[in-house]
Amino acid sequence: MKNLPPRVFVVVAAFNEEPRIERVLADLKRHGYRDVIVVDDHSVDLTSALAKRAGATVIRHARNRGQGAALRTGIHAALRKGADIIVTFDGDGQHRAAEIQRFVAPIAAGTAQVAFGSRFLGNAPGMPKHKLVTLKGSILVERALLKVKLTDVHNGFRALSRDAARRIKITCDRMAHASEIVAEVHEKRIPFVEVPVTIVYDEYARRKGQTVFNAFPILGEILRMKRARKNAKR
Known about the structure:
The chain is α/β, with parallel strands linked by helices. It is built from 9 helices and 7 strands; from the N terminus they run E-H-E-H-E-H-E-H-E-H-E-H-H-E-H-H. It has one domain: Spore Coat Polysaccharide Biosynthesis Protein SpsA, Chain A, CATH 3.90.550.
């Protein structure tokens, strides 16, 4: 009997994405991804209702907990449902479903267990200059703190094998989760690759995205996370 293709689940962390969530889910469905879990992080709009109407499995947080907590909820749910590969995907339309196969291929082939998307290996149309400066600075900071040489940080487009998803522990509820995943991959020696992706910066994404000032609390979260991990090893 031929080996079955890996079962790919897409986890979408969403907060007040009423204007975009249907378009995002339609794009995923158009490219053949039907095992989709939307974690609504206590939106105050129609995100949950529209996601359900689009056919996604919807899990709603009783309070707003942050993107890291939403992804943790979604990843655990995907594992329970039998996912072989889990892709994390934004609900604001910045990611392209057509590019998911780039993440799936190395994991399905066994050459990596984690795939990180990089807009600097790919493309980032419409990226504001201040965002470019902030991201480049963040890359240098994370390389110094986490000792991992990635070309991009915090774009949210990544994939995990089932084994990696079970081994990686996300404890940071908010944006520092992205750095925590990198730290886990490094410390647990999980094989990874970077793949080029397109991150689209249209007016909606720019309005909802992180600002320069958000970089400081995120850095504080990363430092607290790093101290906590260091203390846990003692």
